[in-house]
Amino acid sequence: MTYNLRFGELASLEELGECIKNENPDVVMLQEVDVNTHRKRAPKQNGKHFISELGFYTKMFSVYGKSIPYEGGYYGLGLLSKYPFVSTERILLPMVEAGREQRSLLTGKIELDNGRIITIASTHLDLKAPIRLVQVKYINEVLGKVNNPILLGGDFNARPADAEIAEGMARWRRSMPDDAFTIPAEKLCPTIVRWWLFWN
């Protein structure tokens, strides 16, 4: 499962936790995760170590990766897993244009019950397509060095036909068709696909 929390603006920790428990995923990749921030627009998440509390609520192991300091705390990525983490790493993505928000990739190796190791990863790419292309290339370089299966999820801010997906992620297998709905909206539009889950 991959999900952009939108910094907890729309749902409480308990509501998100219940959603995760109902879906019962083995792993969850989260974006826009706040830790100890104080946003006026997100009182449900303010002052909380959100990923740790969400992990406790869902009875899953949790990992946090800071992208930027924000509003007295941090803003970044999270991973949840039913299986223990063997190692984790936060990797900063290239900043190819001054003044843009720092983006990152959070990876975690988990050990399955049979002893097999897999890597799970969460990312949230830039809003500008040329920057996303550079970031996707870098993610491919980094994850190309991993010698076990990888599950990559995130908010790519991109549509299926965009080069960063159609070309940049061509070697990856998609977990859903191009016309899958990934953004809740009053008027569903299948051409807007931001949240992706890939495996190799």
Automatic annotation (TrEMBL):
Residues 1-180 form the Endonuclease/exonuclease/phosphatase domain. GO terms for biological process: GPI anchor biosynthetic process. The keyword Nuclease applies. One of its GO terms (molecular function) is endonuclease activity. The keyword Hydrolase applies. Keywords: Endonuclease, Hydrolase, Nuclease. GO terms for cellular component: membrane. PANTHER family: CALCOFLUOR WHITE HYPERSENSITIVE PROTEIN PRECURSOR, ENDONUCLEASE_EXONUCLEASE_PHOSPHATASE DOMAIN-CONTAINING PROTEIN. This is Endonuclease/exonuclease/phosphatase family protein. It comes from Candidatus Parabacteroides intestinipullorum.
